[in-house]
Design a protein that fits this description.
Number of helices: 16
Helix content: 55-70%
Strand content: 5-15%
Structural class: alpha/beta
Largest sheet: 5 strands, mixed
Distance between the termini: 27 Å
Radius of gyration: 21 Å
């Protein structure tokens, strides 16, 4: 399951989440994440943490959920590229491994990471979440990670509604709550990819309680209402089909914005014109794309 963009969303949602999930990175003041791409070197980094305070270090963060013997070398190259763009700023790096057994422990970087205040750090998400669960089992981050951590989908069906309620009820700033809900729903949809979105929502019982969340609006949007209205006029079957097409289109656009940022009006129009089958294929293909150029090239094959 693709997880990189969701992890960066959580890191950017609130300073507390950044500190917890990176095992200690603390930033004073406002910060943002930016993606950099250097075409000549064919390099892209999606996790550049850029504090507004020039005295604060810039962090290049790589989330690694698969085995890659080159990850330390890639991180150091990315740190150099970021340093060129921000001369005079201190640049540090962090590799956030999904689990310890994914760490190739490449020297000398891994050895440096064990020292005090190192330029390159490592952290292990599995261990971080285990510690958080032991220390604060009701933390909303644990609820967000439920679809990521639980293999048993029947258990996920049972515990998903309670996890969603914990996020809704947690004392969080509005932006942080929205980010948590977006990540929770995106992972949930990926885990139950054989269900339509109404079936996923029905797992939560009272659908009305979700209607004000941005995640709900992005997934369902107005497609269901439009589909039902057309169904009343032209027949329920045709209306529901339009509703499903609108839902799929809304999800594809949401995934594209999560991965690449702003989607142009022209590209959005082309996606909205796709039939249901092509939208489903594009939703899967988006997980492997790295730039909006890949999306445009895919659409150009039609």
């Amino acid at each position: 399951m693709k997880t990189d963009q969701q992890i960066y969303t959580l890191l950017g949602a609130a300073p507390e989440f950044l500190r917890l999930l990176t095992d200690g990175i603390a930033i004073r003041g406002a910060y943002a994440f930016e993606a950099i791409e250097v075409k000549g070197l064919d390099r892209r980094s999606d996790g550049v943490l850029l504090p507004e305070d020039p005295e604060e270090s810039i962090w290049v963060i790589e989330f690694q959920a698969q085995w890659d013997e080159t990850i330390y070398h890639r991180l150091v190259v990315e740190m150099g590229l970021v340093g060129e763009r921000h001369l005079g700023r201190e640049v540090r790096g962090l590799i956030l491994f999904a689990a310890q057994d994914l760490d190739p422990k490449t020297q000398p970087w891994h050895r440096l990471a064990q020292q005090a205040d190192p330029p390159v750090r490592v952290a292990y998400l599995h261990d971080i979440l285990e510690r958080l669960e032991a220390q604060n089992p009701g933390h909303p981050l644990l609820a967000v990670f439920l679809p990521y951590r639980i293999e048993d989908r029947e258990r996920l069906r049972r515990e998903g509604p309670e996890a969603h309620a914990r996020i809704q009820q947690a004392p969080l700033p509005s932006r942080a709550r929205t980010c948590l809900l977006d990540v929770f729903w995106s992972w949930l949809v990926l885990r139950f990819d054989e269900l339509n979105y109404q079936e996923i929502l029905e797992m939560f019982g009272n659908v009305r309680s979700l209607e004000q969340t941005r995640a709900y609006q992005d997934i369902i949007a107005m497609g269901r209402k439009e589909g039902m209205e057309e169904g009343m006029e032209r027949g329920m079957e045709k209306g529901m089909e339009k509703g499903r097409q609108s839902e799929a289109c809304a999800l594809v656009l949401r995934l594209a914005r999560h991965r690449f940022g702003t989607v142009s009006a022209d590209l959005e129009t082309r996606i909205q014109a796709l039939p249901m089958a092509r939208l489903e294929t594009l939703a899967e293909a988006l997980l492997d794309f790295t730039t909006l150029g890949d999306v445009q090239a895919w659409l150009g094959r039609d």
